[in-house]
Fold this protein.
Amino acid sequence: MSKDNSKISISVIKRLPRYYRFLGELKANGIERISSNSLAQMMNLTASQIRQDLNCFGGFGHQGYGYNVAVLHSKIGAILGVDSKLKTILIGAGHLGNAIARHLDFEKKGCVLEAIFDIDENLMGKNICSIPIYNVAYLQEYCEKNKPVVAVLCIPKEAAQSLADSLVSAGIRAFWNFSHYDLNTDYQENVVVENVHLGDSLLTLTYRANNEI
Amino acid sequence: MSKDNSKISISVIKRLPRYYRFLGELKANGIERISSNSLAQMMNLTASQIRQDLNCFGGFGHQGYGYNVAVLHSKIGAILGVDSKLKTILIGAGHLGNAIARHLDFEKKGCVLEAIFDIDENLMGKNICSIPIYNVAYLQEYCEKNKPVVAVLCIPKEAAQSLADSLVSAGIRAFWNFSHYDLNTDYQENVVVENVHLGDSLLTLTYRANNEI
DNA sequence: GCCCTATTGTTAAAATCTTGACAATAGGGC
DNA sequence: GCCCTATTGTCAAGATTTTAACAATAGGGC
């Protein structure tokens, strides 16, 4: 990373995974080089924005040539941290938790899902994609032993805040939160939260469908 | 709606569901009135932004008093269209589709989930939360008969674009897309797409966890 | 009924984000 | 090896979004 990335704006960051995805596709299709212009057309962006975004991290392109797909893909991957092995746990093995554990390739996204917790006694000893399910009573002890840093929350909103609080004190520094609740971790430095509000997303779609925009 | 809402920015729209959620909580807790200031504190926004956002749609507040929670909640609900009954189908009854069908209260979000489609013969005749699962071969005929307008896509990315194309010609005007693929419907006016990229969200979290922002 | 306080709606300023423009230059054909 | 073309990196302009400021005014206490 050749530039100071301490003040990269969150808008840019949120676009990086999409670049990474498109470049991965191009690479898989054997495309070797691409210009900001063709990429822009493909991604429905302006070439200017792509060049501006990429230049936040350094000059990955060559004048008169464009960008080498494989190089750019791996550079963006490195920026995002796809090879980091953040120890991850998931709490709540209901339908949603189950689907998330199966659906996402955590390892390719920089996270290693190592344990799942639930309150349902019937699930104890079982596993999802060979990741063991433990009783939530064992959570604190597990954290002390294994020091996970990322927690995926697939639990009812009523339980979310207090569980998050105790997870923070157990060392969790990042939450991927699917409960219908906005986690409040302002009191705590260095804790990041991605709230995924599927309900909000659906409501936005409803508005847009009704207003044709 | 007392103001022209044809040029409301998408940033404002995307905040509305969150307002709606917080106001719903306040209402459920028996709070009758709230000022932009207290709401801002609660939601981690500026009071100015809240007033500006709400005023896109008209003056819902009273000087010296604030906003009536129940009124504001229902006004925002009406703007979003929570009472619209958009006929909705879901395609792909795997773990994710299953979880989405169960997890989201479609009716409270302006959509009525009426049918689920899959290719797995073993699922035919079964149902999820009493919504029937049909063979995807029956999709076209179903659309002609029942005229659904919203489609939830929980299918592999390889199948997404061609299925979306045929759904558009069958009358679908809104997609809630969970496949790891950016649906392209530019060629078609009046079709809206909400891409939910869970993988992108996780990658963003990874970046933030690694960079502590 | 009057005055004081709280709080809005609105306007203007500041900040941020996106787009356009273009000089600099690497690469490839001849 | 030179010139022409393609395309970047970057700077400046334009657009949008967010925040601050404040006059206008409704409500409630006395």
Notes: The mean pLDDT of chain B is 93. Chain B touches chain A through 61 residues (CB under 8 Å). Residues 5-79 of chain B form a domain with the Arc Repressor Mutant, subunit A fold (CATH 1.10.10.10).
